[in-house]
Amino acid sequence: MLPIELIVIGKPISHQTKDKARLRDWREKVRQRAIACWNGKAPLGDYLKVIITHYYDAPLGDESGVPDSDNIVKPVRDALNGVIYVDDYQITDFISRRRNLNASFRVKGMSTALAEGFCQGEEFLHIRIEAAPDPSELS
């Protein structure tokens, strides 16, 4: 069942946007993609680790039009509530990354989902959800 990976094509919308209709549409796009990938399974109730990577398209050295990572994760986490997991309080481990599509990459063991994202030739989010380590154990 885990890990699960999915991609969402398009520029993510910040939870701070003033255009609430665009934010609602983005959240629904993420939700529908998660529903399609999860195939009607019940939401998980365990502790989870979520990794979100934003592959953006910007000239190298100019990230002025790229939304901050911390502003794009909330709509994504909210969209996955009730689909992949019961509630985002279950996320005990979280990683958010940004990568410029115009940079060079060396990828070992690329997943089908990530390959699908790169093949689209557009900006996208790669979301990976996996079992989290036991939060009661310090590491």
TrEMBL record:
Protein name per its UniProtKB record: RusA family crossover junction endodeoxyribonuclease
GO aspect biological process, one term: DNA recombination
Alphabetized Pfam families for the sequence: RusA
InterPro entries: Endonuclease_RusA-like, RusA-like_sf
Superkingdom of origin organism: Bacteria
Gene Ontology molecular function terms on file: magnesium ion binding
